[in-house]
Amino acid sequence: MQFEFRKATPEDADQIWDILQQAIERRRLDGSQQWQNGYPNPDTVKTDIEKNHGFVLVSENEIAVYGALILNDEPAYDDIKGKWLSDGDFVVVHRVAVNEKFHGKGLVKVFFEKIEDFAKENQIYSIKVDTNFDNGAMLHILEKLGYTYCGEVFLSGGVRKAFEKLLH
């Protein structure tokens, strides 16, 4: 499969929201508390796109994975119960969601590999991400991709597990 990794556009918003709704439902069916309180929502997607934070992995003209990439800006990360691996520039990854049509095909891994390329292109060698304690799928992916558990942060009304990966 060929993939295009690019910034999301306003034309992508409806498809991104559909994918996020699928992910919200998947979290619910998995018994996770993550994303069960009205966040993310269509306004979240609109803001991500307006601020150039939204990114998509496209396969055959269809969005396969969505996520928000934010450079050096996650206030909740300033107050970690634990310790980050680094103090320099970083890319924050939020709101990763995979299109049901592409579920189970390893595309979240591809998306994270593209994020690493994006970070390096911007001379950034740290990626930070958090997830709910009960999001087994994301916890598994982060472990598989070599992310280090750094502690807990308080975000979106709850305690979240925080991870960092240093790039070389």
TrEMBL record:
Location of the N-acetyltransferase domain: 3-168
Superkingdom of the source species: Bacteria
Annotated coiled-coil segments of the chain: none
Listed name of the protein: GNAT family N-acetyltransferase
Native source organism of the sequence: Chryseobacterium suipulveris
Taxonomic placement: Bacteria, Pseudomonadati, Bacteroidota, Flavobacteriia, Flavobacteriales
